[in-house]
Here is the input.
Amino acid sequence: MPESPRPPLRHMLRAVSRPALAAVAAGGAIGALARYGLGVAFPASPGSFDLGTFIANTVGGLLIGILMITVTEVAPGLSMIRPFVGVGILGGFTTFSTYIVDIGRAANAGATALAVVYAFATMAAALLAAAAGMYATRRLLVRGRA
Here is the structure.
């Protein structure tokens, strides 16, 4: 069965509200600047553990977990929070593309073991942080309602 052609990008973008696009853009600028600050604070060379990227992805995971519980269970009516904070700020702050590049740089520099450890440690830390953020936020909400 042939696939139906996807609509052009311009049609898909028109389906998204301008305020949502503006929220993503503004949030993305904030998140990218924060990520840049981490890169300056924790510079990494090829073949070394990139602490800045690790921190960004771990803290970003935690904040994404907190955000998702907050916007789905506490304040579902706040429509611009997800695009501004989730997609914008945290999308600009977390950097899984840099994480992949860092793995390749470490491997190319001959630090294969570091590349493997970094690959698994970053992903595990980000996922565990997201789960911890969700769990802690739910616990605080339940305690706050009791």
